[in-house]
Design goal:
By secondary structure, the chain is an alpha+beta fold. 33% of the residues lie in helices and 15% in strands. The chain is built from 14 helices and 15 strands. The strands form 4 sheets. A 7-stranded mixed β-barrel has the order 2-3-4-7-9-11-10. It has a 4-stranded antiparallel beta sheet with strand order 13-12-14-15.
Amino acid sequence: MTSLKHRIPVRLRQNWKLVAWCAAFLAACCGVFGSGTIRPYVTSAKTAEAGTVVTNLTGTKDLFDPDVAHDVRITFTDAAYQDMLTEFFKDGEKKYVEADLTVDGTRVPSVGVRLKGNSTLMGLTWKGQAKQRRVPAGERRPEGLPEGFRPPDGMPPPGQPRAGRDGGFGGGFGGGGGPGGFGAQLKGEEPENLPWLISFDEFVAGRRYQGHSQVAVRPASTGSAAMLNEALGISVVGAAGEPTQRSTYSAFTVNGRAAAPRLLVEYLDEGYAERLGDGVLYKSLASGSFTYKGEDQTEYTEDFKQVNKVGGKDLQPVIDLVKWVNEASAAEFAEGLDERLDVQSFARYLALQNLMANFDDMAGPGKNYYLWYDLDTGKFRVITWDLNLAFSGNAESGARDTTRTSHPLKEKFLANAAFKQLYEEQYRALYAGLLADGTAAGLLDGLVAAYGRNEGADPAKIEEEARTLRAFLETRTRALGSDQAISGP
């Protein structure tokens, strides 16, 4: 017995009462709670932000200054790049590669870079193989549409105009000035043309560049060298007074290959949320829905992703909104929406998506939007995101036309007479201040000039895209000018 006693560590023998108490407490917990899983959710403000800024690189130029030339250079090993593509073609995993980055002469070592996008990457080929995406059993998906998307009856493939009007709300495919975005012709052998996400803090915690933890580099394809339609969409949203992303053109080089201007876009990261104010930013995921699934927050991991205040706030505000929108009667919705949502801003959001003929908005297959929850007002605001299909729909569609895709919040809002009137009031103001007075055309001219300042610019190619967009704006202005929702009382 004595020899057995001395085999027990001294520290354990000295604290045997505490150990016995802990064992008894755990046994009691097992008896009370059984084998059920306890899921902790933090709803009170935390003392320290998970994304604490340690280093904020200032650089030599404002990254999104459109009045100067920019230069972005990325270098990574061929082995790391091959491994990244292998993972992506195998299971769709977008793995970060460690790379060295130089931005306008400022070297930033050990950044993370990965492929970005869903539908944009569907046309990617590598070593003669095309990236295949899984289609659910029994479902046929038109080429280029996101996985899991079931097209509405009568919707044509991308690039083909819709016939007639159906009396609802939204935009339409076809006849537009943009590249369409779906099924872009991209090759793994040409990394300088791929869509990238640059992360400044993936491998160096707490590092930002001019307040940004991430920056997106939009793709270049045969359909569009400059993504001019997306750049114009971003500018138009900003001119309307709604939250938007900063963007500009920059010469872009990967591993010393030929440089060409690419569109850089501000990513909606922690820094972006800080500039919006005191609140929580949530990203809608392409894999998700706006469906109430109960109070278990783990059930919403494929629907929304929290961007900031992680660990201090959680998904509960979004769950509350989703539940209320889906379960509220028409009368309850009309009476209570203003307590939960900035309805003026939302009316402008919907009007802008239609005015820009953007098929892939919050109700589109990509579910492209963010939700901003203001902690001071307790209200949500819908934020535009991913405008690669802006100005690429039917330029003659009306303010009340739809693509037949839906979103519960959008659908209920436009089904209410008072909110529909607010939508049309906002639409008329936007039409007058963006299209009729030439503001959008002026923004387009500025973007063409910004593109031309950078190394590798192709004036003929950008002017071809600009001509198509100018024609789209002219047609859109004329069509909406005679639309009863715009010209009527």
